[in-house]
What we know:
The complex is a heterodimer. Chain A is mainly α. Chain A has one domain (7-295): ABC transporter involved in vitamin B12 uptake, BtuC (Orthogonal Bundle). Chain A contains 13 helices and two strands, in the order ααααααββααααααα. Chain A has helices at residues 2-16, 18-32, 40-55, 64-87, 93-112, 122-129, 137-155, 157-167, 169-174, 179-205, 216-226, 238-257, 263-295; strands at residues 131-132, 135-136. The model of chain A has no long low-confidence stretch (mean pLDDT 90). Chain B is an alpha/beta fold. Chain B is 32% helix and 22% strand. Chain B has 19 helices and 20 strands. Chain B has helices at 63-70, 93-98, 116-121, 137-150, 166-178, 196-211, 223-229, 252-260, 331-338, 361-366, 376-380, 387-392, 396-399, 407-421, 437-449, 467-482, 494-500, 523-530, 535-542, and strands spanning 25-34, 37-47, 52-56, 78-83, 86-87, 101-104, 184-188, 215-219, 232-237, 240-246, 297-304, 308-315, 320-325, 346-351, 354-355, 369-372, 455-459, 486-490, 503-508, 511-517. In chain B, the strands form four sheets. A six-stranded mixed beta sheet of chain B has the order 6-7-8-3-9-10, sandwiched between helices. Chain B has a six-stranded mixed beta sheet with strand order 16-17-18-13-19-20, sandwiched between helices. A four-stranded antiparallel beta sheet of chain B has the order 2-1-4-5, covered by helices on one side. In chain B, helix 15 runs parallel beside helix 16 and helix 18 (523-530) packs antiparallel against helix 19 (535-542). Chain A binds chain B through residues 151, 155-157, 160-161, 163-164, 166-168, 170-177, 230, 233-235, 290, 293-296, and chain B through 71-73, 92-94, 97, 103, 105, 107-114, 118, 121-125, 128-129, 133-135, 137, 160, 162-166, 305-306.
Amino acid sequence: MIAELWLGTLRDVAVNAVPTIIVACGLTLVVVTREIDISVGSAMGVLATVLGLLVSPARFGMSLWVGIAAVLVLGAVIGLVNGALVVWGKVPSIIVTLGTLTALQGVNALLLHGEQITQLPSALRYLGVGRIAGIPVSLYLTAIVVIGTMLLATRTALGRRLYAVGSQPDAARLAGLSEVRLKLFVFAFTGVLVGVATLASVSQIAVIEPNLGRGFELVVVTAVLVGGTSIHGGRGSVVGAAIAAIVLEGVRTTLILLRLGESATYWERAIQGAFILIAVLIDLLVRSRRATVRRA
Amino acid sequence: MVAIPRNNAEGGAGDGVRAGVGRGLEVDGLAKSYGGVHALSGVSLAVRPGQVHALVGENGAGKSTLIKIISGVVSPDAGAVSMNGTPIPLGHVTLSQQAGVATIHQESTAFPDLNAIDNLFVGREQGMRRGGLLLDRRRMREQTIAALAELGEHVDVDRPLAELPLASRQMIAIARALSQQCTVLILDEPTASLSEPEGEALFRAMQTLRMRGIGMLYVSHRLAEIFALSDVTTVLRDGQVVAHRPTAEFTEASLIQSMVGREIAPLVPKSAHDTVHDTPSDGATTVTPPARDEPMLLVTGLTREPAFRDITLQVRPGEVVGLAGLVGAGRSEVARAVFGIDRQTRGEVRVAGQTLTPGSVPEAVAAGVALVPEDRQHLGLVLPMSVRENLLLVVLRRLAKFWIRPRAIERTLVQELSASLAIRPAGPDLRADALSGGNQQKVVLGKWLATKPRVLVLDEPTRGVDVGAKAELYRLIRQLAGEGMATLLISSDLPEILALSDRVLVMRQGMLAGELPRAEATEERILALAMPADIALRERVAS
């Protein structure tokens, strides 16, 4: 009985963490190459709106497949724009994506006019509430993304090159690696995953409103850093980020269960911040320990 | 050291099995300049199959530039490189690699966060895929272990390199180059961070490669290695080939002679304390110099592993002490520690008897230390700001009265400095990046002179500076010494060291290798102290 309750809670926590886990997979690779993308929340907002406008019967009412394709392609385009500004504009990625974060918020407001989209095709709901063998469909999707990205990171030439560029850019140049192509890839890849996360998110909440995705980037960045990815690049784990995302969601759920009311949100923020600082501290410790090992 | 049978014939190998029959690597008329300074001009040489071709020269002779061009890291301004008669497109690392050029670079080419397997294979994973996209990790692992074992290296191939000793990392970089299917292997000072047995393992590997007909271009400052390993030797000086002969025709002394080259007489004889000029006095604190024989700068047992250890030196007022040594000997690192940029682990720095807090630049500045850094564009100047603002940068706070900048005093100070430094074109409102290298250097110097320093540390003050500006900088340095400045001069330009120094200290691999009084200092003796060659050679040259 207790076990069942536990499993049920864990499942709910995992389902709620799905969008974070999916985007954290992409962002881990971005951070591994010494870049960052803080526009993922705004991008999700815009993609959700576009999806709603295209497929809602009250709007254009197009086929769900058109909506899915549009979200994925548009996600890639947003990522490529971020990447292009970073590699060719030589602007630090935190500035570039701060820019796109703001710009995309504006675009979203223009598209939605402060309204909500509630009428969504029932097929989309299946992704959110459907189950196969008792396990939510969105968890299968998440597992595919996590395992796929993990294999990409650790078992393909491309993945290893991403770590190499982040670890030592000068040496990467001497090894003939193209920093431009690798960074464009990670931004585009993250963009596509934001698209996937948008589908999962919209299918769960069933309402598209102007604030969707707001603050999402903070949760994702926290998950990536807590998951053991070094802000200095070259080191990071997709699985670590996924576990961290679940832990963070668990903390949030616990706070809600504690019935703190209004202050639950404040506590959540504070704990999130503490997590980031602890993660950075651990990274610092690992690095200084290595420095002493090397000297020995 | 392993003796390797040599092939003296220019045309190629006389023994062994030769796989890559042909003309090998040919370099024709390469030229490259950086901002008006010729790093290379008209360099031609050939690395024949099965031949070890030594490339020697002083710091800054152009060796590294040449290697970077051949390996595709840098594009030349003119010239061509070909492999067995086929031209190699330049400026592309991957294309050079595909043409059969493998390189062991001088700077670390290792990825600290990756393990040995990834370090060996990243960038050339072709043929390591199993089925579709995924890499065959097991095969990569086996090949890595085998490649390292061939070099006598047995490390944990799954640990990140950052956790391995420096020498192992270098061996992994070497294994990476060796495991490439190359026709020509370039080795840029591969033994610099290796111990004796590891060096031997490398030399054995080179012998195997030679038997397979692979040509090697070998750069080293260790003369003993050059003589033991190489068939022919090319000497570069000031970006040009000045000698090219079978190694056997050189003696150790004649090789050093041809690296140093010029008539061995100081450019400008050091004159006695000549004209004393008025330095700007407004606003800056007055400093009473202590007695002449008291050291102004006293460094004792200064240590910061692994860069340098047990450095003890002193500079008296009015004295110019030269600090010579090869690139990487730790000279600039000593300068940084003296100035408080880096914190030493042991030892202390005293200025006029006062001990400085380690790692505090403000305290060093307050005590009267000034550093003209090696990399003036990044560390010495704020390039987009005007000459005036650059000159006033350090002294700003001291001049200001109640945080208000005294315009009149500033103007006088800038005028005086510009005049005494002869900055050209004369215009305090010009942006610093509009000036030539030599005049930029004068601005850096002037910025510190405004603070009336007592100890001046100059790190490569005339690198990339034209001859005219160089002479003016020399005049300034001597004039300052005449006024009682204690100067520590770091330079790789030996004539410069000889022309300016009262004493010459030589550093080798992080330690002081010796001190030469002015009368006994020659380029040969300095080089002999600076190079990690065998003791017999050093004595022969020095006597």
